[in-house]
Please model this.
Amino acid sequence: MPVRVLTAADAGDCIQLYRELTVGPPPSDENLFLQVIQHPGTTIYGKVLDSRVVAMATLHVLPNVTWGGRPYALVENVVTTLDHRGKGYGRETLEAVCDEAWAQNCYKIMLLTGQGRNAVGFYESVGFSRDNKFGMIVRRD
Model:
């Protein structure tokens, strides 16, 4: 089955995936998932096997003033279930997200990954580069 747009019916599976992803407080509120998928410009894509979401990624397409007004994309929360890693489902999902960003005429796609996750090579194999930008964050607890 191809990667598809996830819906409210997928909320339970996605909450489980968020739990595998995050190092912060474990997510449990499915209503927060619903808020994300209802947000304009935001779509969550997922690989579904046997009626279970096994990989997902969030795409935010954002308006822009530079680059002729072309939008840019931000990818967040790329995760595959532990028991399905190494099978290409994360790659398939991320490639579908990138294809959609390009279809929406985005001029760039950005993402951040945790330094301790050892995922840089995975993202580079999909075409992302760490050569020309620095990712920085500030958090408020």
Summary: Residues 70 and 106 are 6 Å apart (CA to CA). The mean pLDDT is 93. DSSP finds four helices and five strands in the chain.
